[in-house]
């Protein structure tokens, strides 16, 4: 924003600028909105009743335990009466869900646009990584008093609206970067109160495209006690916390909080909530990144409860599209006895998961670990099912991986047990790749199974000449046509 000369004193300019916010008691263009994924239910790990939530407190900290409910859990909206829509306040744009009058142009005061002693232009700011203003220092007590008065003029909804504007967000971001305890305290007190919608202002900021940047900078500015109260405010109610976790900007805010709390006992406020709604969050395309942030930045001890939650519902996660992605990330980080337990459950259920469109990726992941214990277990579990699995897109990749292990003989013996089945797989869209792999690995190792496969298929080469079977035919004959007798 270019500098603008002001005619009055700096304080008068600040007062006039805030007056131009044009607050009213009305609402404009309000639309109902559910800040949740379409997946607004929880599935019990055993496929039984859907679990609800019951809040308890242990040593003053919020902890949530799954209870049983007989109905589907539908989460209430964080904003039951209003919505966050477009946050553009420039040139007459509406602010959906705010109290700005429709069609009113909002002039948001930016300290960089003021002349005078509030901020010494050219000395006290620089371009920040947000593309706005970074204030390096407040020059004197008078300037600090002016900033304090300015912040005092922003109360309740006017503070929310200011943070939700791009220029306002940049200004507050710059002020917070001063790391001045008085400025930080002023902003901190404002975010703990409720907005006119009955929602903690801190939560409204976390959901806003510009406001969440103010939240992120505030988190870095707080002392331990302030951070503790902010964390408690965000996590004290489970359902609003879930709404934040599955919201684009809300999840970014929680990820920022996780990084700030890493190494602190306060992280349990967050992990307890994530455990209570683990399946719901892990099967949401946005929410899963919140848990991934914990896996990436927290210690094994801090993630222990999250790993337990993953183990308890690993099969449900494995057959969900987003859940399988999240589960693979868990496999990448889990260690020790918990890792053994998780991989053992997945290996034991290899037949079921191998034939699932999503679960097969999880089994492929376990096989790629090259752990002989679980690789052998998977290969053994699949005996008698290799032909059926080979005919499926995902399953065929699993069988090919099994053919690359020292237990490949189990796979080939399965095929040799029935000639018709072998021929059917060889002619399959996906199965023909499996048979090609079987020929290649047995020939390379000099296994007698190579000649057994050859003897079984040679009498049926004429059948293999067409369709997908032609790939196997070419491999056996070198591309030479078979003469009909």
Features:
single chain, 485 residues, 28 helices, elongated, disordered N terminus, translation regulation
Give structural notes.
The chain has helices at residues 10-19, 141-152, 157-163, 166-176, 181-191, 201-206, 211-221, 224-235, 238-245, 248-261, 267-276, 278-282, 288-297, 304-312, 314-318, 321-333, 336-348, 350-354, 359-368, 372-381, 386-390, 393-403, 408-416, 419-426, 431-445, 449-457, 461-464, 470-477; strands at residues 51-58, 61-68, 125-127, 133-135. It has 485 residues and is mostly helical. Helix 7 (211-221) runs parallel beside helix 10 (248-261) and helix 10 (248-261) packs parallel to helix 13 (288-297). The chain starts with 9 loop residues before the first helix and ends in an 8-residue tail after the last helix. It contains 28 helices and four strands. The chain has a domain at 1-36 and 75-221. 54% of the residues lie in helices and 5% in strands. A hairpin with a 2-residue loop joins strand 1 (51-58) and strand 2. The strands form two sheets. Strands 1-2 form a two-stranded antiparallel sheet. A two-stranded antiparallel ribbon has the order 3-4. Keywords: Repeat, RNA-binding, Translation regulation. Pumilio repeats lie at residues 344-380, 414-456. Residues 122-480 form the PUM-HD domain. It holds the Pfam family PUF. It comes from Dovyalis caffra.
Mean pLDDT: 77
Low-confidence stretches: 1-136
Distance between the termini: 87 Å
Order the strands across the largest sheet as they lie in space.
1-2
Task: Describe the oligomeric state of these chains in a short phrase.
Answer: single chain
The Cα radius of gyration reads 31 Å
Structural class: mainly alpha
Number of strands: 4
Strand content: under 5%
User: Please, how many helices?
Assistant: 28
* Percent helix: 40-55%
GO cellular component, one term: cytoplasm
Domain PUM-HD: 122-480
Pumilio repeats: 344-380, 414-456
InterPro entries: ARM-like, ARM-type_fold, PUM-HD, Pumilio_RNA-bd_rpt
